[in-house]
Amino acid sequence: MSAASYLLPYDFSPITVLSFALVLGLYGVALLRLPEADRPGPGRIITFVAGVLLCYGVMQTRFDYYSQYMFFVHRGQHLILHHLGPILIALSNPLPILRFWYGRLGPGAHRMFRPLGLVYRILQQPAIASILFVGLIYFWLWPPIHFDAMLSRQLYWLMNWSMLLDGLLFWWLIFDPRSPAISNALGYGKRILLLALVAIPQMILGAWIVFSRGMVYDVYEVCGRAWPMPPETDQLLGGLLTWIPPAMMSILGILIILRRAMHEDGKFTSRKTVTEGPAS
Fold first, then answer.
1. Is the pTM of this model over 0.90?
2. Which end of the chain lies in a sparser environment, N or C, as judged by fewer CB atoms within 10 Å?
């Protein structure tokens, strides 16, 4: 196969291609029309595009073929869809883009979006968001469900899209750029607590896969593996990808939130000093 052929979809999905093209298209148009003061900087633009392209790459290139026939590649696919891609998109802070397009919707469109807004607010409740975030990982890795999902095209796409959308919701809750001091955004302490709580069950699941003596996911035996790798090695690598990288991303998220909290505290302290003057 030529290098370019690896960029072609293994299982072409018009909805997936159109969805990603629409997201990048709307983002680009908004960038051109936003006032310079509101326009994201080059770093944020690159971060957003990288997050979107990573998610596209694991869903609509040859990578998707290997993820269907190697367990550890599949775990890498979900690591990007549920963690890395959404993290980059959330850190890029696309809020000005969203506000730009929302402001151009008419009253009728606003009324149509109200039910979605209600669903969004429910899903962004901290307890619901964290349970859903971890619960989806456990659900799709439950061996009978995983077996069916890897053999059913419809379930397979539902699995991947649910992981991506849930990842976007969770990491936006964590990295919401609005300050909790002047908005209804989740407090920094609660964000850190959520990151610590969701890391524990992921580590437990990954460790269970790593130390399981038998084959947990025999669907890869039924369909055959893309490479001549021992099944035990494939399962070991998949378990490690379920165990270690998500925990490291939670730690990284905690460090980012701590930095934001300290930076914001410093700004408020400076403002208070300027307003009240030096203490006597």
1. yes
2. C
Residue 26 neighbours by CB under 8 Å, 6+ apart? 97, 101
Q: Both tokens of residue 27?
A: 């983002």
Query: Tokens for 75?
Result: 């775990």
How many Cβ atoms are within 10 Å of 111's Cβ, its own excluded? 10
List Cβ<8 Å contacts ≥24 apart for 99-106: 100/30, 100/33, 100/34, 100/38, 101/26, 101/30
Alpha-carbon gap, residue 65 to 74, rounded angstroms: 9
DSSP 182-251: TSSPPPHHHHHHHHHHHHHHHHHHHHHHHH-SS-S-THHHHH--SS---HHHHHHHHHHHHHHHHHHHHH
What single-letter DSSP state applies at residue 81? Answer: I
Q: Which residues of the chain have pLDDT under 70?
A: 1, 266-280
User: Residues 6 or more apart from 15 whose CB is under 8 A from it?
Assistant: none
Alpha-carbon span 140 to 48, nearest angstrom: 27
Write down the domain spans for the chain: 8-269
d(C-alpha 91, C-alpha 94), whole Å: 8
What pLDDT is stored for residue 168 in this prediction?
A: 97
CA distances from 135 to 19, 55, 141, 163 (A): 25, 21, 10, 11
Residue 95: what residue type? Answer: L
pLDDT digits (tens, 9 = 90+) for 9-26: 999 999 999 999 999 999
Q: Which pLDDT score is estimated for 113?
A: 83
